[in-house]
């Protein structure tokens, strides 16, 4: 079965990423879905029932990755299940049944994808200075009648209707807005000039306190309070996809940067992607020339500064296809036994994010042929010790680039 939400929103765009990342600096503990209301949602991230900071950081990283890198629902589900197990999260709505769990994962994924997408869309529409906006129904199998009634509605972009009814207008709403500079253009985008709002359109339902068709908690334009800032932030992003994966993090507090980056490196989906990336390189398939494994934390900076004297401010761990080819060619065969090492394969390479996130040791290791400093990260997993050599590439790149990786067996010593 296809994933309609993923099909629509899998291709992220700069304004969508900017709109979501504005929320990462304010992780809000909550007991209920409506603890964060209205425009406060534009600058805060919450998941109902998630109250611990590390749990929220993990969930935010999982959602952010689906938005920034377009990884889709299945990757999010794998991450969600792993996060719940790792953090021991219980008592959340839906956990008691398989159907309930599926519903909860789908709701978190869809709500964040939809709201960030439309917040980015709002920024684009305002930037485009379209004279008319057109409301189009999302085509769901069980449509809300009021949303169908608005399908094709053409209104000026500054009409007060958009303040209250810019979609999504409820959980699961897939309605969209298009812009046009002329009435002819509006009609070509599916607008119907004969469709008008009734004179009393602004009266709220006395039973709900909202316009008919607007779900509880949705009576605001997602991203409306930050649309100009979103557009400014989006302008910083160039050279998709790598730059967009690391953009905007300077705007977050240092603690939020660290929490997000650590959570990102420990996502199961990231480790799966590194494994697939290595497999594609091994098979000779075309891959992205470079991928990020998250920003260095403050602890990384301090330890590297102690080892090398260099302060790596705003650096990211990166992996490229040439490093994978080198590792598999130089350390990926049975001859490693002669060096007291074991073979490195795709499964080993999938451990890279975890090795880099929490190394047991960091040490200076000379310079590369290009004259750049090399550092080595080592980490033990059971009886195996992995070492990763990374090159410090400064100036505009600000990358700590994987150069090689090898491993050796070492017996685990029993405590005395």
Automatic annotation (TrEMBL):
Domain of life: Bacteria
Organism for this UniProt entry: Parasedimentitalea marina
Official protein name in the record: Phage head protein
Record Pfam families: PBECR3, Phage_Mu_F
Start and end residues of each Phage head morphogenesis domain: 59-177
Residue intervals of the Phage-Barnase-EndoU-ColicinE5/D-RelE like nuclease domain: 300-408
Chain ranges passing through the membrane: none
């Amino acid at each position: 079965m296809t994933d309609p939400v993923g099909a629509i929103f899998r291709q992220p765009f700069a304004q969508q990423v900017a709109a979501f990342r504005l929320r990462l600096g304010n992780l809000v503990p909550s007991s209920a879905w409506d603890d964060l209301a209205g425009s406060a949602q534009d600058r805060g991230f919450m998941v109902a029932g998630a109250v611990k900071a590390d749990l929220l950081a993990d969930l935010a990283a999982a959602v952010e990755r689906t938005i920034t890198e377009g990884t889709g629902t299945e990757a999010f589900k794998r991450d969600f299940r792993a996060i719940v197990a790792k953090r021991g999260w219980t008592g959340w709505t839906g956990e008691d049944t398989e159907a309930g769990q599926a519903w909860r994962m789908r709701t978190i994924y869809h709500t964040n994808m939809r709201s960030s997408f439309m917040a980015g869309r709002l920024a684009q529409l305002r930037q485009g200075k379209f004279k008319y906006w057109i409301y189009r129904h999302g085509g769901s199998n069980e449509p809300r009648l009021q949303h169908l009634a608005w399908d094709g509605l053409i209104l000026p972009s500054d009409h007060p209707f958009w303040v209250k009814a810019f979609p999504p207008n409820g959980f699961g709403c897939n309605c969209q807005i298009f812009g046009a500079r002329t009435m002819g253009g509006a009609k070509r985008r599916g607008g119907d000039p004969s469709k008008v709002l009734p004179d009393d359109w602004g009266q709220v339902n006395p039973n709900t306190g909202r316009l008919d068709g607007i779900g509880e908690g949705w009576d605001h334009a997602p991203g409306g309070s930050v649309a100009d800032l979103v557009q400014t932030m989006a302008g910083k992003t160039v050279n998709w996809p790598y730059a967009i994966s690391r953009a905007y993090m300077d705007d977050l507090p240092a603690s939020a940067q660290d929490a997000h980056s650590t959570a990102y490196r420990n996502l199961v989906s990231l480790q799966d992607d590194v494994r697939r990336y290595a497999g594609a390189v091994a098979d000779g398939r075309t891959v992205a020339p470079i991928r990020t494994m998250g920003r260095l934390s403050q602890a990384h900076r301090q330890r590297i500064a102690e080892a090398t004297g260099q302060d790596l401010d705003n650096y990211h761990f990166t992996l490229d296809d040439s490093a994978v080819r080198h590792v598999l060619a130089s350390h990926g065969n049975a001859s490693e036994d002669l060096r007291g090492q074991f073979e490195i394969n795709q499964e080993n390479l999938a451990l890279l994010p975890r090795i880099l996130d929490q190394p047991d040791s960091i040490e200076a290791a000379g310079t590369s042929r290009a004259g750049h400093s090399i550092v080595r990260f080592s980490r033990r997993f059971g009886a195996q010790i992995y070492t990763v050599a990374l090159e410090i590439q400064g100036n505009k790149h600000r990358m700590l680039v994987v150069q090689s990786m090898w491993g050796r067996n070492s017996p685990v010593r029993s405590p005395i």
